Amino acid sequence: MSRTLRGAIALVGAAALSLGAVATSGAAQPGEAKQDVKIGLLLPESKTTRYEKFDRPYIEQKIKELAPDAQIDYYNAAESATTQQQQVNTALAKGNNVLILDAVDAKSIQSSVQKAHDAGVKVVAYDRLAQGPVDAYVSYDNFKVGELQGQALLKALGDKADTGQIVMHNGSPTDPNAAEFKAGAHSVLDGKVKIGKEYDTPNWDPNNANQQMSGAISALGKDNIVGVYSANDGLAAGIATALKASGINVPLTGQDAQLDAIQRILLGTQTITIMKPYKPEADIAATMAVDLAEGKELPASLTPTTVTSGSGEKVPANLLTPIVVDKNNIGDTVVKDGLYTVAEICTPTYAAACKEAGLQ
Q1: What is the rounded (10 degree) CA torsion for 170, 168, 249, 262?
Q2: Ordered DSSP codes for 57-79
Q3: Which of 217, 300, 301, 303 could pair with 22 as two cysteines, CB 3.0-4.6 Å apart?
Q4: How confident is the model over 205-262, as pLDDT tens digits?
């Protein structure tokens, strides 16, 4: 069995994937006719900077590298589960034969995933594991993310871990990843700290997190709060504002390595963030989608593990390893990986902090 030119291109592109993820394309029979590649890319929202700045362009670039004639239809649900369901209908009507789906609501999208499956359309769950008959899934190890956040918070608390209370902000209850972050964090924090208040934050909304944190401060008292667990950087932004308004500066976690979070880390108003390099995840999703669109079986190297969705399906998966970013390794992580330049990070407001951290 020989590789087609597209298979060879896929192999070369996959070799560049970091964190041990090898995204090789499946082999095709000599002279085998390729199916048209028509991919619908459905992302959940645009408030979080990653989707438009990183995920979408990386996925589209990789698809075009592997299948230059591919049709790519892009949809953004603007945080609306109903809109996303309608967008799946539109994608099916357009003849998309594979969907890359980052679900707004992993449970409510199940009927749409089933509809795609019944129409013979493959579904690659991206970053969040949708319910229903999903064909493949790529994300980061979300339980590990929560573990790393919890460990970093405990380390930052030090001797203060048993002198007060922490507040936990776990993210959206409709996002299955949030439940995994929460479980991972609890596996580390339970029995080591007292949790004074704990919240799920609908839609990952920073404004909701701000209100929740303000309420926690009023209920617990500012002098009794020694740390805050935040599941991502968007929530951390709202939390940090509430803390500052009350004159509190305590350890605060995050995730996604957003630019504002990196700058808060430099100033000392956020302790860590979790970096999940976007390009490896995007490249794997694109490679899965192109292979499925061309009627190929996904190789074991592309789906080295299996996960179980909320609806009980066993889904072939690729789970990547997250990275903790703190003040000491900004240059070796987000800068080295190309997320941001030193100039983007070190604007005049942060110049002194950048110099102290060795970024200038």
Answers
A1: -20
A2: HHHHHHHHHH-TT-EEEEEE-TT
A3: 301
A4: 999 999 999 999 999 999 999 999 999 999 999 999 999 999 999 999 999 999 999 9
314-320 and 136-140: which strand pairing?
Answer: parallel
Nearest alpha-carbon partner for 230 in 182, 190, 175, 183: 182
Residue 230: closest CA among 196, 276, 199, 207: 199
**How many CB atoms sit inside 10 A of residue 223's CB?**
8
Q: Check if the beta carbon of residue 200 is closer than 8 Å to that of residue 173.
A: yes
Q: Specify the DSSP class assigned to residue 27.
A: P
From 299, 304, 337, 334, select the one nearest 319 (Cα to Cα): 304
Q: How far apart are the first and last CA of the chain?
A: 53
Other C-beta atoms lying within 10 Å of the C-beta of residue 312: 7
**Size of the chain, expressed as the number of residues it contains:** 360
Do 263 and 270 form a contact (C-beta atoms < 8 A)?
Answer: no
pLDDT digits (tens, 9 = 90+) for 80-97: 999 999 999 999 999 999
| Phi-psi label, residue 20: left if phi above 0, alpha if psi -120 to 50, beta otherwise | left
Give the position of tokens 């999703």: 285
Among 263, 265, 283, smallest CA distance to 61 is for: 283
